[in-house]
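Re: that chain you flagged

S.,

Sorry for the slow reply, it's been a week of failed gels. I finally had a moment to sit down with the sequence you sent. For the record, here it is as I used it:
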Amino acid sequence: MNKPATKQIEVQIMGQSYLLACPEGGESALLDAVERVDTAMCRIRDAGKVKARDRIAVLASLNLAFELSQKEAEFQASSFAQTESAPSHDAGPFDQDPLDPQTQARVEELMRRLDQTLDKDGRLI
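Prediction finished late last night. Pasting the structure tokens below so you have them in one place:
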């Protein structure tokens, strides 16, 4: 089976450079994700209570995962409300699963990595 073509993109997160693999055509989505992570991590660092980069990363990941789960819940609630109020309608763009398989796999990988990190001492801070 052929793998999709990938390229490497250098990004900065909280002042540190990372070289990331990116599928062709996915640059915009990756850069958006990098911006979200960088913003979340810098916000935690700038609050001044947490200094260790790994702990900042864990907290930022948890915050982003929480925001994602809230948006999924809102989406599912609005989809349910639409289904209840309109018993018959043509399929639209919001009738799909909230996450595409690649995004779902990425979220699961991040959650697995969080679990591994937290297993080391069982504490966030």
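What I noticed first: Residues 40 and 46 are 10 Å apart (CA to CA).

Talk soon,
D.
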